[in-house]
Amino acid sequence: MQKIKTILTAFGFSAALLVAAPVFADGHLEKAIEARQAVMKLYSFNLGQLGAMAKGSVAYDATAASAAANNLAALAALDQGMMWPKGSDATAMPDKTRAMAEIWATYPEINGKSKALADASMAMAKVAGDGLPALQGALGDVGKSCGGCHKPFRAPK
Description:
This protein is mainly α. Helix content is 74%, strand content 0%. The longest helix has 54 residues, at 2-55. It is elongated and about 45 Å long. The termini are far apart.
């Protein structure tokens, strides 16, 4: 009787894993997408403040510019590897993300683009508090590095 109970318990556990595994996998992909979208929103929030100062629609404030630039540099330095699992692209999950599957096919290229953003953000953080011309000069390189990924690897709306 004990042997049968053990077999049934093992079968039930295996069945639970078969049912739970796809749910876990889907949840994991969605959480990864949510995490990277949250990082992108933080990029956007900080870049919006810097861009407004650079364009003159908001008065330049050295303290605020330094804070936003430092935030951006910290975000760009995050290890985002776990936020980009295979299968979390717009083809596999069209209503969840605009990330194109080509990202995973060109991983070394993407890694270089990520490094370009981190380098440009760090350079901007060093000068953002030194005056509006310094901020404007550095912001252009950050924008170019953002576009380096968004243009080729983000599906249109």
